[in-house]
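Suppose you are handed a protein chain with no further information: no name, no annotation, nothing but its sequence. What can you learn? This example shows the usual starting point.
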Amino acid sequence: MIRTLLLARVGVLVAVVFVSSCATPGADAGIDRGGLQYLKQLQTLSRAQLDATWSKRPELAARIGPAQCDVQAFEILYSTIGVQGEPADASATLLIPTGDGCTGPHPLLGWSNGTVTDRLQSLDEDLPLNLTLASVFAAHGYATVISSYLGLGKSSYPFHPYLHADSEASAIVDSLRAARRVASQTHIALSGKVMLAGYSQGGHATLATQRTIEGKHSREFDLVASAPMSGPYALLQTFISGWDGRVNGQANPLGPTLFAYTAVSYQHIYGDVWQAPIDVFKAPYDTKVEGLLPGPLDVYALSRTGALPLDVDSLVQPSFHTDFITNTNNTFRQALARNDLLDDWKPQTPTVLCGAGKDGVVDFENARTANRVFVARGATVRVIDVDALLPADVTGVAAHSNGMIACSVSVRDGLFEAAR
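A reasonable first move is to predict its three-dimensional structure. Written in structure tokens, the prediction is:
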């Protein structure tokens, strides 16, 4: 559950605007959900700049297609709610199509981000992701808002509730509201149509957001398409089947980090994963995990530097391991089940589940299982396997990383273009 590789840093501060605004429909107990706390205008990325980004990767350039619009980037800080419904804030980047022939009205795409462990990394500084999304979506006419979630980027929330379905959804819903306010205040024409997409953790967050919008906010948002990608939708089964650090028959060196991040998150949320970290984590990691997840290192550096081990057995206490696998009352197991996304609902929106069959981080069986469950309930859901679009020698973690562009283009052309 990771993000894309570094391409370049683009983006300079042009303006900072502090904004006050009236309440949003559905505001919780006086919280102005989606209210703008500030707005920073960043550099405009020209068509030529975006196309040049991919000049050394012609196979990707051909797949993405030439930019049709320039892209104006904004950073926003907006009001949202925490895991208990309390007032909170989150930051996001908003990418707006602009230039000749790109005046709109534009559909609004809510992008759900992949795993970030670097606490202070902000999206205006994470131009690798922004350049990918700008090139694939915004440069093709989609206004795109990318939330950092709670506790990451510029958010003041005290922790990141990783793989917590409800707060992932509330952060994304409120980012859509904030993006609409920016559009209104800057005279950007939106069509009213809303789409959702996200990769890895973002696939989980996308499906959680879809469930929330369809169940609670269908009158507020005209949701016309949803594309969860490479997400752990069957969350409990994902952890049980991948507990040994192998996914799809391949070693998953990120497994220990993803396990620890989830355990730390659920301890903050539910308070019952452990009485003390040593109950779950072996020394010396018991004294480190809470400061690292999130902390100063990105998800790759945690493993590369040895801050966290490459195998689960070096990290987790054997007694906890055994209890998790065998005891259905294990509190971590129960927390995972609470954040599963396949129970008691079916998508109402046209939905594509995309991923790579040889993904070595998030097993593609998640997409197959979700498809079987939802289709059996009468939903309109399709699965796309992008293995054929990846280099033949790419497997494991690399297949997961490379799948984002392949999936993004596939769902843009195979779902979003018809829905817009």
